[in-house]
Recover the amino acids of this structure.
């Protein structure tokens, strides 16, 4: 794993661990957003589980790159869902910035994990 891949996997792993745990522990601002978007608590919990799983795969993937690939694909999937949610809700562009940045970092990580050849 290259230095770039290692750094991106750690950054994304830590970020997704934090945001996933915020969903699983029902942080009030997170609960309020999911309700505003029209999502049930079970959806919030499912997204939290997927985010924590992605974080674990990314962090363990620093030693086993194949796991990092699975983790980054989950991150891309979740960020696309976040962007669709913001679009559907008509959220201001400022709320789109974090998922866009995380999506770009995930795509760069995915590209950096491609086999050379």
């Amino acid at each position: 794993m290259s230095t770039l891949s290692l750094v991106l996997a750690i950054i994304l792993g830590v970020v997704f661990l934090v945001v996933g745990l915020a969903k699983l522990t029902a942080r009030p601002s997170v609960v309020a957003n999911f309700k505003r978007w029209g999502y049930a608590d079970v959806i919030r919990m499912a997204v939290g589980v997927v985010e924590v799983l992605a974080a674990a795969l990314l962090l363990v993937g620093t030693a086993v790159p194949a796991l990092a690939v699975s983790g980054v694909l989950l991150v891309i999937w979740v960020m696309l869902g976040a962007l669709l949610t913001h679009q559907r809700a008509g959220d201001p562009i400022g709320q789109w910035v974090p998922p866009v940045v995380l999506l770009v970092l995930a795509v760069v990580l995915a590209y950096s994990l491609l086999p050379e050849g």
In short: The mean pLDDT is 96. Residues 3-112 form one domain. Helices lie at 3-24, 28-36, 41-60, 65-89, 97-112.
